[in-house]
Amino acid sequence: MLRKSFVLMVLGVAAVLAQTTPRTQSIRGTVLDPSGAVVPDATVTLKRGKNYISPPALTGEAGDFHFDAVPEGTYSLEVIREGFGLSVTPLRIGGRAMSPLRIELAIATISSEIAVGAADTVPVSTEAAENRDSATVDLSLLERVPIFDQDVLATMTVFLDPASLGAGGTQLIVNGMEVNNVGVTPSAIQEVRINQNPYSAEFARPGRGRLEIITRATASEYHGTFNFIFRDSVWNARDAFALVRAPEQRRIFEGSLTGPLGHSKSTSFLFSGERQEEDLEAVVFARGLSGEIRDNVPAPKRNTQISFRVAHRFSARHTDYWQYNDREFPSDNPGVGGVVMAEAGTHIRPVEREVIFNDQWTLSPKWLNQFQILIGREREETTSVSAAPKIVVQDAFTTGGGQMHLLRTENHAQGNDIASWSSGRHLVKVGVNLPDWSRRGVDDYSDFGGTFFFSSLAAYAAGQPYAFRQQQGSGHIVYWQKELGGFLQDDYKVSSNLSLSLGVRYNWQNYLRDNDNFAPRLAFAYAPHKGRKTVLRGGAGIFYDRTNAGPIADVLRYNGEVLRNILITNPTYPDPLLLTGALEAQPSDIVRFAPDIREPYSVQYSMGVEEQAAKRTTIAATYRGAVGIRNFRSRNVNAPLPPDYLVRPDPVLGVWRQIESSGRQLDNALDVTLRGDVTRYFSGVAQYTFSHSSNNTGGITWFPANQYDPTGEWSRSDLDQRHRFNLLGTLNSDKWLNLGIGLTLASGKPYTLTTGQDFYHTGLVNARPPGVPRNNLEGPGYADLDLRWSHDLHFNHAKREKGPVGTFAFDAFNVANRVNYVSYIGNLSSPFFGQAVASQPARRLQLTLRLKF
Fold it and tell me: Are the beta carbons of 633 and 697 closer than 8 angstroms?
């Protein structure tokens, strides 16, 4: 009832506010190159936040452009022309007449600032999408900071909030559409954004739970980038858990090319491709009956990716493009390392292919419509190195076969249709999202050879496993996963110093039968002073989660018929009856959704202040809070009954995993973000977060220790880190000192002390000593400093800004060679109790050669 009332209030306020009619002005200007010559055919776009206000304009033969009848408010004017950097000009349209603009393009990104009708200019803004506690980097910065293997996503995800992620992980938005992968290679990425407009109704997840990618547009002239990246172990430090330095090498060939298709002036293309050849080794650190086991195991990877886009401009108001993406990325032994030995390894062979259609049409000066659809197919096959039965000695060693034989296929569609209407002080967006509409197939023959579980080395020596698992059946299922979303949002400029964003979103998915998932959103920004160097910003909203595909597949195949998953506690070892598969008389496990399951949701809220510290520098402090309601977790509702925990309620069934929405979570955080030109020589983004997160669930696949008493599970969440600091920027004092810096500091994550014994006879070994809470232990902190030195060589000095440019770069990752331990063992029965069995990579050096033209 509360949610429905909130929805009606939002729509009512939007309808009332829509009656206001503001004053308008014209925007005119000229685009020039660094020599002062005019630049024709440059694309000029007027935006409010991330939304187009009018059709993009092309500069004429005299480099001129104009936009008529623009209402007063805060905007940004973007100018793109191949061979030049992106120019972004913030505009504030007030009561005074506006003089013609003069915009000069250059190789590097220019962020000029022009105020109309005001004495000062400040980057802080009262627009809903211009919050300064976000992390935004463009291509210019991405090329100058240390990015390991050009993995832009991994570099930027440190700015995400783990507590804001859903069951499916980070929500990836590429060119406005939710997708499974970026599609293009790194040199075709134009911009990366995190936490832009955190309460937008357009997206299912909050700002710190999604990553937005803007890819490069096609161009009317030929331009290209080629990168060669090389790394060899002779330059690297030895892994802390390896006896010898592993002979590793990595080679990456990557690039992109854009230009006109043939001699056409209205059709252009963008090609990007990448080939990664990674000859890596996994480090095994385990302990068997004869003592310590340490080994380096080959774990090679290959990645081949291509993308081809053809764009056609029918007119200045109407453009389309078609894009084809193809990716194959096989790998060997991805799960080997730590206590997992080589013979328990697997081979993975994933393939992804997809076609994208994008249509953008300006129907009138007030209406813009964008339609996007993606049709894709994915195939992933996982097989074991060995077919032998698997042997798991908890937190000591894993040997035998990998017992993985799994084939997943997926034919899916994803898409958007979003209409934007701009009138007066209102920018209204309405749209339909199709996050996933897929036909999925699973052929699961995993664990057909069986797995023995031992609680300790002593139990293994005595031949006393606590459990044995084996699967039987056809293992084949085909099912449809359907997800749908819709939204309505109004960004309203109440006055020159106050803006509101009012919206509502609706989510639906087919398996939960939960049909009332309306999610209202509200945000505001207010500048209390005329100079507008201070902005107060806040908001609140509801965000729903989704199950993702994995749990749905579990429910369908673990029904006791398609795939019989059999658990025997305290079996005889080795029993020939088990190994021959004569288990038909044993009860089978099943997986079910709880009868009252609903989509989890969180209530997110925040309040902050943004301050203009210098002309191009802002600082923002934001308090964030969230309450997670109906969070996912699993529970065995057929577990042996107390007090002896020996007899199941239903002896015909084995484990009855019930997926529930009965968890909860509380999050509180304070973010301090510094952006811009901090000094004359340094620019970038730095963010410090102090946070605390508590919950009673570790996710949709997590089980409590005692299936009949989950009340004792409330504690620190698995991702709770009190302190996090991230910095990404560049230091430039002269033409030879071009230093990119990436720094991450964080306090330790929690882990749980367990007995390592199956006291409850459930096949789980997560029981804790009496009175010990979950996540009562904490690992050490994390520190990583990465540096990049680069230098540009211009091959045409006469046309320095337009000629080919070669770049030589040298990267050092984990410069201090700090050992950042991971995989801490809280099992009292393990020989590694209180220790780590793996670490993040030691210092690595990387060479990059780049050619741009």
Answer: yes
Helix (H) or strand (E) holding 153: helix 152-156
The Cα–Cα gap between 662 and 660 comes to: 6
Angle at 179 between CA 693 and CA 353, to 5 degrees: 135
Strands (E), 363-404: 367-384, 390-393, 397-400
Neighbours of 289 (CB within 10 A): 11
Tell me the one-letter amino acid at 87: S
CB 142 within 8 A of CB 156: no
116, 93 contact by CB (below 8 A): yes
Count CB-CB contacts under 10 A for residue 581.
14
Running DSSP on this structure, what letter comes out for residue 753? -
Distance CA 720, CA 665 (A): 11
| Residue-range domain boundaries for the chain | 223-852
pLDDT digits (tens, 9 = 90+) for 175-218: 999 999 999 999 999 889 998 889 999 999 999 999 999 998 88
Contacts of 585 (CB under 8 A, 6+ apart): none
Topology, domain 223-852 = Maltoporin; Chain A (2.40.170)
Which tens digits make up the pLDDT trace of 111-133?
Answer: 333 333 333 334 677 777 788 88
Would you give the end-to-end CA distance of the chain in angstroms?
59
Residues 166-182 as b/e (b if ≥16 CB within 10 A, e otherwise) read bbbebbbbbbbbbbbeb
Cross-strand pairs, 432: 417, 486
Sign of torsion over alpha carbons 483, 129, 196, 694: negative
